């Protein structure tokens, strides 16, 4: 009976509002503006149901008392369901809701560079107000097929294991996945740091992460002077599910502004498994039918429409690119789970970080056997393909042979040599954080290991020799450096010169040459 009375009261309020609107409409003149107003009749966590607003559009912003915003999500005959972008604790039944007449949009432009903002573009870094007159809706159509160019330009991460074995091209979508605490954010952090002086804009989108973790990430960016070309869009785990849901779309719109200006942009979504959970929470509150693992039926679509916006544009469209690195968290190394398989099928390859390698101290713990790049190899610099063409196959074979070594199986000489080479490849692929390698340094190091210069060298000295080779590549190869960066094939004379100079930095090899040993 009490509910019936409340409904009568609400209906009475709604009738009064409609009567006033009709009176205003009948008496309107050129100076009178008619705005639609609705009434809240039900509130749940992050969700409000509203009667009225007959002209409201999908994804339109609506305004609640106290300056709080929501998104019109479900448009039904009797009412609309609104996803709150602020906490709904102060919202109660009977409150008025007004249309804003605009869909959810965000500010875009140069003013955002170096700033930390929330998914609506409001600053979170205590800096000055963001002054820009351009706004993009968060939901935008992906570029047409005829506007897309082939992926043919590399995007260097500075991480040897990735650039050599699982290369990424500008305009590609490469998934980074692994269990908790295996260094996924470290990989993307090093990738952002490596874009310094490479004319690449970076956008980092933090979705439902702990505020302390995001703050440390931002501090590292500032420490290595990477914030000047980076935008951070942060929606913490303390935010409403609605704010976490719109975060990647808002970040993508901010990135697309630069892409459409002909710039190269790198965007990182960290991470989309949390984004899927936020959408699942909203969908269940909206009473949408649950499907597998209680996710709604359109869970694939929310990620596909986001990642399809990453591409490389043709020269007629400005030639800009948007490279996406979505991050996914797996559970107990289960790559075949629902959300990971969805993302694997959408993206152009994946980089899998193994907890086993992490525990063994192999950093970054890239599992070469389970990682693949379906596009980047075509964008790889020619010198890479020349010096590391068979490296991935050799390393995968080494990992298979390593099982026999552990059981002390009697091995023939070729197998033993393959194992010795594999151990040195593994040591070379180890790389400390915050120390990305240049293209030339990587090519020199790879050439030395594939030509056997490191065979027989004490494994404990590989790291020191690798550092010396990197320094030599930066300072001692002026002419050859230009040849590598231009994409030309290394001539036999250039290879010989590199090896002759590099062998001087390897103590054991100098002794072997002196004694006439090959």
Question: What descriptors fit this protein?
Answer:
518 residues, alpha/beta, Elongation Factor Tu (Ef-tu), domain 3, Rossmann fold, Lysin, 3 domains, 8-stranded mixed β-sheet, 6-stranded antiparallel barrel, 16 strands, 39% helix, elongated, disordered C terminus
Q: Total helix count?
A: 17
State the strand order across the main sheet. 8-12-11-13-14-10-15-16
Q: Structural class of the secondary structure composition?
A: alpha/beta
Strand content: 15-25%
The CATH homology group name of the largest domain: P-loop containing nucleotide triphosphate hydrolases
Describe this structure in words.
The strands form three sheets. Strands 8-12-11-13-14-10-15-16 form an eight-stranded mixed β-sheet, sandwiched between helices. Strands 1-2-5-4-3-6 form a six-stranded antiparallel beta barrel. A two-stranded antiparallel ribbon has the order 7-9. It has 17 helices and 16 strands. It has 518 residues and is α/β, with parallel strands linked by helices. Helix 7 runs parallel beside helix 8 and helix 12 packs antiparallel against helix 13 (439-450). The protein has helices spanning 2-26, 160-165, 184-193, 211-223, 241-260, 272-285, 299-307, 338-346, 355-359, 382-388, 391-406, 413-429, 439-450, 462-475, 478-485, 492-502, 507-514; strands at 37-44, 47-52, 60-64, 68-75, 80-84, 96-103, 105-107, 116-117, 135-137, 175-178, 200-209, 230-236, 264-270, 321-329, 349-353, 372-373. It starts with a helix and ends with a helix. The chain folds into three domains: 2-102, Beta Barrel (Elongation Factor Tu (Ef-tu), domain 3), CATH 2.40.30; 106-378, 3-Layer(aba) Sandwich (Rossmann fold), CATH 3.40.50; 385-514, ATP synthase alpha/beta chain, C-terminal domain (Lysin, Up-down Bundle), CATH 1.20.150.20. Strand 4 and strand 5 (80-84) form a beta hairpin.
């Amino acid at each position: 009976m009490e509910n019936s009375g409340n409904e009568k009261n609400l209906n009475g309020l709604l009738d009064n509002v409609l009567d006033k609107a009709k009176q205003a409409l009948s008496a309107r003149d050129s100076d009178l503006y008619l705005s639609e107003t609705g009434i809240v009749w039900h509130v749940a966590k992050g969700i409000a149901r509203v009667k009225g607003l007959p002209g409201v559009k999908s994804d339109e912003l609506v305004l609640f008392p106290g300056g709080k915003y929501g998104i019109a999500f479900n448009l039904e005959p009797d009412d609309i369901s609104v996803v709150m972008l602020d906490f709904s604790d102060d919202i109660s039944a009977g409150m008025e809701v007004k249309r804003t007449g605009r869909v959810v949009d965000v500010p875009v432009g140069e003013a955002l560079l170096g700033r930390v903002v929330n998914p609506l573009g409001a600053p979170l870094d205590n800096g000055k107000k963001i002054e820009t007159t351009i706004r993009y809706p968060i939901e935008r159509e992906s570029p047409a097929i005829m506007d897309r160019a082939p992926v043919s330009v590399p995007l260097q991460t500075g991480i040897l294991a990735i650039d050599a074995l699982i290369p990424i091209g500008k305009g590609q979508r490469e998934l980074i996945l692994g269990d908790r605490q295996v260094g996924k954010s470290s990989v993307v952090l090093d990738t952002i740091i490596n874009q310094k002086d490479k004319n690449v804009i970076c956008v980092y989108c933090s979705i439902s992460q702990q505020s302390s973790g995001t703050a440390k990430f931002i501090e590292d960016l500032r420490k290595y002077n990477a914030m000047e070309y980076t935008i951070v869009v942060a929606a913490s785990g303390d935010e409403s599910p609605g704010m976490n849901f719109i975060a990647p779309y808002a970040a993508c719109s901010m990135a697309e502004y630069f892409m459409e200006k002909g710039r190269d942009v790198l965007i990182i979504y960290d991470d989309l498994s949390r984004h899927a959970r936020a959408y699942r929470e909203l969908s269940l509150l909206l009473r949408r039918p649950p499907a597998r693992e209680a996710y709604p039926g359109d869970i694939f679509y929310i990620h596909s429409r986001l990642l399809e916006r990453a591409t490389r544009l043709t020269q007629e469209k400005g030639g800009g690119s948007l490279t996406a690195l979505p991050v996914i968290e797996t559970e107990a190394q289960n790559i075949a789970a629902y959300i990971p398989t969805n993302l694997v099928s959408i993206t152009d390859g994946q980089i899998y970080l193994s907890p086993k390698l992490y525990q063994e101290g192999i950093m970054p713990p890239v599992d070469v056997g389970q990682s693949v790049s379906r596009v980047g190899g075509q964008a790889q610099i020619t010198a890479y393909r020349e010096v590391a063409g068979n490296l991935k196959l050799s390393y995968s074979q080494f990992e298979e042979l390593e099982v026999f070594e552990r059981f002390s199986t009697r091995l023939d000489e070729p197998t033993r040599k393959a194992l010795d080479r594999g151990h040195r490849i593994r040591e070379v692929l180890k790389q400390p954080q915050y120390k990305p390698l240049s293209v030339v340094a990587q090519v020199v190091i790879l050439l030395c290991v594939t030509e056997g210069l490191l065979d027989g060298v004490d494994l404990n000295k590989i790291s020191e020799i690798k550092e010396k080779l990197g320094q030599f590549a930066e300072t001692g190869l002026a002419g050859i450096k230009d040849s590598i960066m231009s994409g030309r094939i290394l001539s036999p004379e250039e290879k010989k010169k590199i090896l002759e100079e590099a062998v001087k930095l390897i103590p054991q090899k100098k002794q072997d040459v002196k004694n006439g040993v090959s």
